[in-house]
Amino acid sequence: MYNAFIITVINIAFWTALHILGAAFITSFVPKKIYEPSNLLFKERAFEKNLYNVIKVSKWKGKLPIYQKKGALDRKHIPENLSIDHLEQFVIDTCKAELVHLLIGILGFSSVVFVICKVEPFFTFIVIAIVMNFAQIPFILVQRYNRPRLLKLIYRTKSSIK
């Protein structure tokens, strides 16, 4: 019989490492040109605006925890004199964050190694991997919701300067 405590500790360690080290580490090697909002992966799809309204992203997006790297824009304290450069960096950061959460979901299935090593039963692995994949969805949705709004703000700001 499998020890539930050991299974829990291994899964917590695995998913924590994946969140803190794995995906963020991998995305640091991704070429900067990939993080363009015009990239096919990051482009807004026609159905998205309706989806965001239906699931009311604007109501709950501020309640999600965020990783705040040093020197990055703080979503709760956005300065009034925000430059276009800062906004453009913010857009790139949304692309990076989206890719990180997507990779966490995909790489999470690598926990199949625990099944091969007989650390935990297959059913437990698959349930945890699926749940953790679904847990990434709100974070991805928020990035996809914010990016077009930021791009619109950049466009309006640039237009008003001309």
Q: Mean pLDDT across all residues, rounded?
A: 84
Radius of gyration: 19 Å
Work out the strand percent. Answer: under 5%
Helical proportion?
55-70%
Give the low-confidence spans.
none
Briefly note the structural class of the backbone: mainly alpha
* Largest beta-sheet characterization: none
Give me the strand/helix succession. HHHHHH
User: What's the number of helices?
Assistant: 6
Distance between the termini: 70 Å
The dominant shape is elongated
Q: Kindly state the number of beta strands.
A: 0
What would the keywords be for this entry?
162 residues, 0% strand
Written overview of the protein:
- This protein is mostly helical.
- The chain has six helices and no strands.
- The chain is elongated, with a radius of gyration of 19 Å.
What is the structure about, briefly put?
Helices cover 64% and strands 0% of the residues. It contains six helices and no strands.
